[in-house]
Amino acid sequence: MMTAFYAQLKREWLEHTNLWRVPLILIGLAVLVRLSMVFGNLSVDVNLPEQLQLDDAIGSVLDGAIARVLNVMNSIIVFSMIIVACVYALSCLFAERQDQSVLFWRSLPISDTQTVLSKLFVALVGVPVIIVLCQIIVTVIFLDTASGQYLSHYFSHSLGHLGKLLLWALLPTIAWCLFCSSIANRSPFIIALFAPLAVIVVDWLFLDGALNELAGFNRLIGFDDFSLQMLLVGFVLSAVFIALAINRRRQRI
Fold first, then answer.
1. Angle, vertex CA 58, rays to CA 72 and CA 49, nearest 5
2. 4 lies in a domain?
3. Contact at 8 Å (CB) between 171 and 240?
4. Would you say 165 and 128 are in contact if contact means Cβ atoms under 8 Å apart?
5. What's the pLDDT score for residue 41?
6. Residue 88: inside a domain, yes or no?
7. Per-residue model confidence (pLDDT) at position 84
8. Fewest CB atoms within 10 A around its CB: which of 18, 93, 213, 215?
């Protein structure tokens, strides 16, 4: 079981190269920015983040420019990898039908449930791990031996936010994207984008936004409702979308 699951994860890593190319690009960008700060003309004039201003030890090893660039880079990493996760979820089930590789994978003793769950694992576990590793590497690039102090403060705040983002926002979004990827004949992106928009418009015109208030169709941009109700609704929607994606993959090629 574990060998088959590992093989599927390796397959995703090899077939969907953006999962590792984008992090390499971001790390390369961080190296370029750091070199420009040391040898070039890049300068940033900004205050330390609030949580770092309260710590004299951190303030003694960081200047405003480095703190600003680090926080910007870390935010870019999170934003970029979330986009990568969504694009990956939208394309993975659709692409295997387009190139007919689904015929090969379905000939192996791997169920449709295992296949879909492995893709969900990549998006919800693999991508966040890549985010944390990239942030660590970028911090080391900028701070060297002082990176431990910064990371301990940064992760004490950011990991909690990342966890909320995963459970409340990214899980239902990825599940929806996988479902769209399983049913699309042409462009999964169009279905994933315009179907919720249509529901939101109808909800706004006839239900005064009650349905959106209950389900929270927009789970990524500007989402701030981390209530238990929204979490449970997200879990239910995710389970439904994943079950539908598995069933759809089982029925079609």
1. 35
2. no
3. no
4. no
5. 67
6. yes
7. 95
8. 213
Q: Are 212 and 222 in contact (CB under 8 A)?
A: no
pLDDT tens per residue, range 128-162: 999 999 999 998 988 877 788 778 888 888 888 88
Q: What are the C-alpha distances in Å from 58 to residues 49, 153, 160?
A: 11, 9, 21
**Separation in Å, CA 180 to CA 186, 189, 232:** 11, 8, 22
Q: Is residue 61 part of a domain?
A: yes
> Does residue 58 have a pLDDT over 80?
no
Q: What whole-number distance in Å separates Cα of residue 176 and Cα of residue 188? A: 10
pLDDT at 45 over 80: no
Under 8 Å between Cβ of 250 and 112: yes
Q: How many CB atoms lie within 10 A of CB 46?
A: 13
Neighbours of 222 (CB within 10 A): 6
Tell me whether residue 7 is in a domain.
no
Report the amino acid identity of residue 55.
D
Domain that holds residue 35: 17-251
SS3 of the chain: the string is: CHHHHHHHHHHHHHHCCHHHHHHHHHHHHHHHHHHHHHHCCCCCCCCCCHHHHCCHHHHHHCCHHHHHHHHHHHHHHHHHHHHHHHHHHHHHHHHHHHCCHHHHHHCCCCCHHHHHHHHHHHHHHHHHHHHHHHHHHHHHHHHHHHHHHHHHHHHHHHHHHHHHHHHHHHHHHHHHHHHHHHHCCCCHHHHHHHHHHHHHHHHHHHCCCHHHHHHCCCCCCCCCCCCHHHHHHHHHHHHHHHHHHHHHHHHCC
Q: What is the domain count for the chain?
A: 1
Per the structure block, which two tokens stand in for 229?
């109700």
